[in-house]
Amino acid sequence: MTTTTVADLHGHATVGMAVEEAFTFFTESIGRWWPAEYHIGSSAMVNTILEPQSGGRWYERGEDGSECDWGRVLTWEPPQSVRPHVADQRQLAVRPRPHPSQRDRSPVQPRRAAADSGRT
Asked: Which residues pair with 64 in a beta bridge?
């Protein structure tokens, strides 16, 4: 059996918008900024969707209309906190199809903070 290690994904960006606008952009436009090569469906990914509620789905939609679940939204507290939970972080980087097990989960927690002059 081969074991693959996937590095943690960390990032930092300052954007020219208020916290509320940044939250909306991050959550409603995730398909615009998520790297398309990080998908698990058998079809090329055309969108990533994060349902705006605790317990909501986090999934991708493929060119052929198929959907692949990535995980669930654990926390939905606009505009300060959204916490999607990846069912298996390895599948987003190295697996062509969803992993059948839900045992290896990884939390994702973006953080937002007001900077200055309407920047976040």
From this structure: none
CA-wise closest residue to 87 among 59, 112, 109? 59
* pLDDT tens column, 14-70: 778 888 888 888 889 889 888 888 888 889 999 999 999 999 999 999 999 999 988
d(C-alpha 47, C-alpha 32), whole Å: 8
Backbone dihedral angles phi then psi of residue 34, each to the nearest 5 degrees: -70, 130
**Strands lying side by side in the sheet with 106-107:** 45-50, 57-62, 67-77, 81-86, 106-107
- Residues 85-114: tens digit of each pLDDT: 877 655 554 443 443 443 444 444 555 566
Widest Cα–Cα separation across the chain? 53
User: Nearest Cα to 27, choosing from 63, 66, 68, 75?
Assistant: 75
18 vs 117: CA distance, rounded Å: 9
Give yes or no for a contact between 114 and 82, defined as CB atoms under 8 angstroms apart.
no
If you ran DSSP here, which 8-state letter would residue 17 be given? S
pTM (2 d.p.): 0.66
